[in-house]
Amino acid sequence: MRDVMRWKYAALLAFAVLAAGCSSNSKKELPPAELPDFTEEVQLKTEWSRSIGDGQGDSYNMLVPAVDGDSIFAADVNGEVKAMNRLTGDVLWEQDLDLPVSGAIGAGYGLVLVGTLRGEVIALDASSGEEKWRARVTSEVLAPPANNGDVVVVQTQDDRIIALDAATGSQRWVFDNTPAVLTLRGTSAPLVTSRLAIAGLSTGKVIALDIQRGLPVWEQRVAVPQGRSELDRIVDIDGALRLSGNTVYVTTYQGRVAGLDLDSGRILWQHEASSYVGLAEGLGSVYVSEASGTVDSIDERSTSVLWSNDKLARRQLSAPEVFSSYVAFGDLEGYLHLVSQTDGRFVGRERIDSDGLRARPLVVGDWLYAYGNGGKLVALTIR
Fold first, then answer.
1. pLDDT class for 27, splitting at 50, 70, 90?
2. Ranges for the Pyrrolo-quinoline quinone repeat domain (predicted)?
3. Among 76, 146, 240, 340, who pairs with 53 as Cys (CB 3.0-4.6 Å)?
């Protein structure tokens, strides 16, 4: 137990150092960059707005909403879960779990899945909010569970990958990993296909497991720990993995952004990067929110940087998302920024929540959903 507690303390310490501005070499912490002026080219229209309890809470949670069909699901840190029509914002049902939610939300195949700080996974009926089952896992669940209709896959804070039966919640298998000595608070959200469960680890590796038996199919190291101190050697994969076609996209803190072959794990391309929130991809480019506050566009074919926007340094940017022909991301003051996919110039800005905008934007077709730290969920379209 002492070892576990020491590891948890180290995780929190590492993130505290990161949040304080580890991109600066100066002993004096530099403030976030001032918002740059620009000529607005795109205006956003608020279609509807709803309050989701206390939002992300005081801990560094990433409670990203989820969309399934015409429904959008969101949860707050205290276990308030809401289902809404994603086009009108009408509330379909509400459920109060009265539990410290930290991993939310996975949705699909008739289930809404949330994870808790107490090491539980709770499955709700997507149409009614009725609890279907709950399962105990080995430690905190800080990322959304993934579901392929047969198996629910959960990644816990101690780097274990756990498979649960989607119908009953009973455990199918557990795959043990040894976490890094020092790690950020958080985990990558796993991916599932009909045959694989794929997860990014705190050691800078990506692992693919057979979905039915939990046996390794391939393992690939994306980042190699470097430096003298343990802080320098942190190479967590905390941003959500992305899957497009047969390519798995991944980025690490103090490491690389890379594309991996889904079947073999072979590295298709890679580029140096440092991100703890994740990436987006589109038009043959990968967009990365760097830990420093820079947003880069990287060409998948040449791995060269097509453009780099460094005007938001130290503003603790969210993961990016492609929205129409733009790239959208939030910041610590709750602003949603839009930049051009072509050259990275600012084209639009909207303040969502004065408490901050940490969760990555969620894009479905012509709609963008932004969930602020204080609990404000807003649906936006381009005018």
1. low
2. 78-309
3. 76
